[in-house]
Amino acid sequence: MSRATTPDAVDAAPAPLGLVVLVSGSGSNLQALIDASADEAAPFRVLAVGADRDGTGGVERAQRAGIATFVARVPDYVTRADWDLDLERQVAGHHPDLVVSAGFMKVLGPAVLAAHRVVNTHPALLPSFPGAHGVRDALAHGVRVTGCTCHWVDAGVDTGPILDQRAVRVEDDDTVETLHERIKVLEREMLVEVVTGLAADRSWLRA
Ligand code: GRF
Predict the structure, then answer these.
(1) Ligand 1 centroid to residue 187 C-alpha, Å
(2) pLDDT digit string, tens, across residues 110-153
(3) Catalytic residue among 94, 95, 122, 151
(4) Using an 8 Å Cβ cutoff, are 24 and 105 in contact?
């Protein structure tokens, strides 16, 4: 006879998905994740925030929320490979299930990518306009619709499998700044939805 499953076992929610978030700038995408994880029942938690430079708004936001932070600056290492290894060590110290690159302006190296699953958010509709200037490049090209993409990170620059996208119409009087601000409104929503989905279906952890 099979053992009866107790109601408690059926209802038990999985532990929240643990995130390390990497930032280089103001951290508004990070803030969206922090806000969405404030509820005790939230499906994910920000365990730590790492930056590639000093003085980021993202690290300040993390500190205000009582979240651990670290900084790993490329110029502080003899080689880029040393930076990659130390970044991996610092990330791993927080035992994340998932690393989120949220406005992190460095290409991650092989040590980080071998040890962690990483998602990135990019302010253009990939595969168009990859790289550090997606908003500027889309505007300069004259596209009428651009947007944002959330994707798995692989060894390329903004080339990994796409998880989700949002479209934004380009207005005639848009500047890089006005367009980027409208993209970021949707980007923050998209990122929270993607991470929530990855917390709900964790089959990717075994892939
Ligand atoms: C985002 O648009 C991200 O995609 C890009 O830089 C921006 C970062 O914004 N790479 P924030 O620091 O999250 O406010």
Answers:
(1) 8
(2) 999 999 999 999 999 999 999 999 999 999 999 999 999 999 99
(3) 122
(4) yes
